[in-house]
Amino acid sequence: MSSKHILKLTALSAALAGAWGPALAQEEPSVAELSKPESVVSLGIGYWSDDRPRLGIYDGMPDKGAYGLLDALIIKRDDATGTWFTLDARYLGLDSREFRAEWLRQGDIGVSIEYNRIPYASPFTVMTATQGLGTSMQRVPTPSAPVLGEWQAGTVRDGWTAGFFKSLGGGTDFRVSLKNEHKEGGRLWGRGGAAEFAAEPIDSDTRQLEAVVSHAGKTFQIQGGYYGSSYTNRNSLV
Fold this sequence. Notes:
Elements: H1 11-26, H2 31-34, E1 40-48, E2 65-78, E3 83-90, E4 98-105, E5 109-128, E6 149-169, E7 172-191, E8 196-216, E9 221-233
Antiparallel strand pairs: 1-2, 2-3, 3-4, 4-5, 5-6, 6-7, 7-8, 8-9
């Protein structure tokens, strides 16, 4: 079943529209006002009444309780120089926070920096007597005298990215970015043919470097650059 609502223009509403129409037209914003960048900041608080072992795996809110919520989008523009500044921050009250700041002079030069954190909380709690969890020196106790304790796997990845852009003129641009991601924590593991329980300790860095020179002309386009990556594991025994 569907329903329709039809609004009819009565004589009274037509008269009011005629009386207020010119005044409303005069209050319309100008083109400069419409194109002016706007900044927004939001602040709040949230509360979970129960634990969220599965739904909170990646969002930084696995446990019940209160969480602060803070987002900000700051945009500034200098019309005289064509320079923009942008700050975009999200989830600052949580472990899954991220932000990006950029300074850009249109058609000339720009720099940026970006940070993001990606948490992972395992939904399972392990009861084990293994000692040294979180390190590369772990000891499995004898089955005759186990002392059980709780352990929960989880990792945190902190990533930083720095970027640079420069116009070389004549349709030629240069850009470079450097990213470093540090990963720390532990995850479920096993050892030996008897499938003894262990936990893999994680403490590593991954780096990525990219540099590109590109040219776009009237008749052809060309691009060349370098990309490289490296990995460092501080747990050399694993």
